[in-house]
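Subject: mismatched residue count in predicted assembly?

I count 268 residues in my input, but I want to confirm that the predicted structure covers every chain. Input:
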Amino acid sequence: MSEPDDRRLLLEASLGDRGAFERFVQRHEAAVFRLLRSSAADEADAEDALQEAFVAAWKGAGSYRGGASARGWILTIARNALRRSRRRRVGEPSTFEPLEELGLQAGWGRDDTLEGLARRQVLDRAMQMLGEEEREVLVLRELEDLPGEDVAEMLGITVAAMKSRLHRARLRFLAALREVTDE
Amino acid sequence: MSDLDREVAGIRCREVLKLLSSYLDGDLTEAEARRIDDHLRECDRCEHFGGRFSEAVAALRHELSRAAPLDPEVARRLRARLSDV
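Triage response: the counts match. Full output below for your records.
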């Protein structure tokens, strides 16, 4: 028998089926926690928001209409839970370098290869070096593979602005990778 | 004038740098994509950088797409919280 889809699980959860909701939690908890850890001030805040997000999802399961993906739906709830806690990561530079500068930091003009691309630890470290907005757009677009329109809506920006942020985030990620592997 | 101002096949390197994500994501028109193709064929620096850029994005998607499982204690506390509502 095939696994029920998210829409069905949430429908059953809205009728009080805790087993169905547990399956929904199992399916999404790791992704939700990853997004929260990328934005929260610390692990404890990420965990608080994780709990609040799934409590809100349990109470509001009936509000899921199935238009956007359930992954996008629960990630939006989680992002809002963290925003309410007002403990988002702070103190990171929000500098807006010219694209050319970013390109040079990312290695434009260097005739070399990139090491460590197959090592999760290296990639994780590079991600940690990014600012919150950059990490967030990479998690949503590249790792969760959510449609660009959904990501733009979650971030409260236009699709064009999301694409611009994504491009800068990719360049910064490449620059961070070089920094990690040059050490 | 920086190296990025170099014009190859009718388009400057800085413009190629700006359009790289749109190019990789297939967001450009056919004519725009063809201009980038022509530039990359003749510009070693942009061709090389485009390759590294593309490799980095692919590695990110491939290696990190699977989120690490929740720590068992975090998972346990989540269930405990959910059982209270």
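The longest helix of chain B spans residues 44-64. Marking this ticket as 'not a bug'.
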